Amino acid sequence: MAALVLTNQLTAQLLTALFAHFVYGWVGRDARPQVPPLSTIVYQVAVFIVLQDPIAYVIHREFHFNRKLYRKYHSVHHRWLTPVALSALYVHPVEYIANQVPILAGPLVMGCHRAVASIWMVLVQLMLLKVHSGYCFPGELWFAEFHEYHHVR
């Protein structure tokens, strides 16, 4: 498990980061040296969520319902019948890159400040680790028990 996760972090993540860097430069971004006010950060993160959720759903659904994509790529992630936090990153490198599209969509569309994009990336990683951890807190938005059921079926 650790080898695939490390490979994804050192190759797929690096390629995605380089791609995002060049696209960011092309579409423009907020380059001011000061961090935006909290109201701007909250607004932009809310927009990121609105953009990320349906895009991620469509991509994930395609990886499930397209038999070729499932067998070749997504089945790697579903080897974990009972997910643990690190299994969130245990995916085929092609799926890893595909999963970055919805995460990067918001920051690229909004042309946000680098600090806001960084906050968003941390929130997404924490959410992914939490969903795959098996822990469920009352009133949470991302239900780990549903995700665990998703891995079993």
Give the terminus-to-terminus CA distance: 21 Å
Mean pLDDT across the residues is: 83
Uncertain residue ranges? none
The beta-strand count equals 0
Structure explained in plain terms:
With 153 residues, this protein is mostly helical. It has six helices and no strands. The chain has helices at residues 2-27, 38-65, 67-77, 93-110, 114-131, 144-152.
List keywords for this structure.
153 residues, 0% strand, mainly alpha, globular
Q: What are the SSEs and their pairings?
A:
Elements: H1 2-27, H2 38-65, H3 67-77, H4 93-110, H5 114-131, H6 144-152
Helix pairs in contact: 1-4, 2-3, 2-4
Brief account:
The protein has 153 residues and is mainly alpha-helical.
